[in-house]
Amino acid sequence: MKSRTILFLNALLVLSVAFAFTVTANAAGKAYKIGMSLAITGPTSDAGNPYAKGTEDYFKFVNETKVLGDDTIDCTIRDDQYKTAITKRNFEEYIDDGIVMYLNYSTGSTLGLKRDFEEEKIPVLPASYHAGNLDDSNYIFLPVASYSEQLVALSEFVVKNHKGKGKAKVAMFIHPSAFGRGPVEDAKKAVAAGLNMEIVEVVEHGKDLDNSAMLKRLMSKGVQYVLCHTVQSPVATMLKDSSRLGLTASSYGEEGKLTFLGVHYTGGNDLIALAGDACKGFVWSCSFNLTSEKNDGTTKQLALAKKYGRDDKAANSHNYAAGIMVAQVTTEAIKRTKDAGLEITKENLYNTLNKMNGKNAYQPYTTIGPVTYSKTDRAGVDMLQIYSVQDGMFKKVGEPIQSEFMKKIK
Amino acid sequence: MSYFFQIVVSGIVVGSIYALAALGLVLVYKSSRVANFAHGQIIAAGAFITYFLTVTVGIPIFFSFLASMLITFFLAMSVEKIFLRRLIGEPIISVIMVTIGLGSIIDGLIYLTPFGTENYSFPAFLPQNPLTVGGVSISWTQLVGVIITFLLIGGFSWFFKKSTVGISMRAVSDDQFGAMSVGISVPKVFGLAWATAGLSAAAAGCIIGNITGLNFDTLHSFGIVVFPVVILGGLDSILGAVVAGIIMGLIQQFASGYLDGNWGLNGTGDVMPYIVLVIILLFKPHGLFGIHEIERV
Prior knowledge:
CATH architecture of the largest domain in chain A: 3-Layer(aba) Sandwich
CATH superfamily of the largest domain in chain A: Response regulator
Distance between the termini of chain B: 57 Å
Strand content of chain B: under 5%
Strand content of chain A: 15-25%
Radius of gyration of chain A: 24 Å
Helix content of chain A: 40-55%
Oligomer: heterodimer
CATH class of the largest domain in chain A: Alpha Beta
Structural class of chain A: alpha/beta
Strand order of the largest sheet of chain A: 7-6-8-9-10-12-13
Helix content of chain B: over 70%
Largest sheet of chain A: 7 strands, mixed
Largest interface: A-B, 43 and 46 residues
Number of domains of chain A: 2
Distance between the termini of chain A: 84 Å
Order of helices and strands of chain A: HEHEHEHHEEHEHEHEHEHEHHHHEEEH
Radius of gyration of chain B: 19 Å
Strand order of the largest sheet of chain B: 1-2
Number of helices of chain A: 15
């Protein structure tokens, strides 16, 4: 009898311990694996570095504040040095690890891995807003409006605000790569579709120490606006040269001078750091809130950066905001999938993203408009805010805009 | 007409800076017959050291500039002593591979600092208004850059032609074993060659950084951008680097000014220097001022 009691008590103990472990395991929740590969070092790491910090910080915040209850996001971030071969290796290892969503970076690697994304049927959010990413692809979701849309919207801004007689004469100053060339064709299509401007020249820049010849040539052809689609450093050198030569417009659209405008990666605080006073009046399109224009979103962004000990430079970077934004979209997709009682899989996340529209559109605090995705619309934030450099910082110009001609030429 | 002269002035300015950036490559090649693939990283390091001393430490920029040249002088000398000295007498390709590895190590070290990924610019220390004569404009940054370039190049030319150490370096370049047999310390000469190359690289880094802003990728790419200048000049000729630099600068600016945007051409400013390089090398395979060596066997 006594031995039976001891046996019963032992069994009870074992069951209790097993139950305790089960409860602990359930309390720990599930960990959803996300992979991210980007240029933390190497070319363009001035953008990639704060971008990675934004993503890292937001996922930490999600886990610490239990945004997903007891479930957590396990995001591995790896440096690919802007080399597609390394990106591919990182992506393949992430797939082997069982990721449910992938965050990519460059235009080159996004285009290069497009087929892999299709084969793996995994939703991907890149930092490249190249419209070509979406061609023959179902799984790539651009976080914001494509470069094409931005360049066309900027062109429309030029036409609407053109000062002077006749058509606005425009030159494009672009990066010598697929990233730079991509949107030019769309801008040309917009002109063909009736946008009242003339693209006088498309300049692919090199590692120029002096742009005098190019700038004077553009002036001799009557160019009044230079639309830039590249990174900050060449724009800064050109702005300094233009300022030295006395060619920069003192106010927007001043006749006989050059007014400079640029798409997403041309602007931001880094441009001001590189060009100094020469970037005064530079007009920039961006879909993110900037900390130079305080609002609820930027307060949250700065608080996040402070919480995780980021310096002022990272905290105030629009690339930090962009990194947070992709983490926000990922988290929201997981949350909505969970709330729908579905398992967190690549397929279910893909479906959730495609339903992110209409009343289900998602408004992250980092962007100037809502993120909308569907099977036919895979550019997240469609709105663009025009900013211009005033008193050494980017300030808003008017209300957010959206390209009208892009709809016509699509 | 001012358009033409602006292009000439811009070409000379750009060419002079190319020449200064190429000088370090020439100095190392002249003494050791090695192409230094870590040169771009030393250019960047020199610029960042100047920025650090000026902005973080608070030293006036002129003294920071001199201090940075001094630091890269000893830094390059140490690099030679630690990594390259033991390769004396080994095949040249081994030494070149070490310089490629060295470039990766310096890359990695710079990426550990904020300078690897962030953009900076030197505080303004020269008048912001450009000098303009007859519609031709040049910024003070460019003008000071050209003056420093010619001072350094003149100094190095004198050093190699007139000083005992300079002549020793030329002797080592011609024949290492022959130089050793007359009592010249080859290791010391190599160390000095690297050190002077480091010094000139820092100067180039500061000037380029002042024009383009301080971005690591932009700065270190100039180590490669100026290779055609070195090859066209004849690899081991300081005068060749100057002449080739200015030729390259002029071709670049003229192509950009007169060809780009016409007849559907674009980006010729980057391509034309290479086309001209190939054409010149077809007729002068050793470059404009390179030594045509005849080996009797």
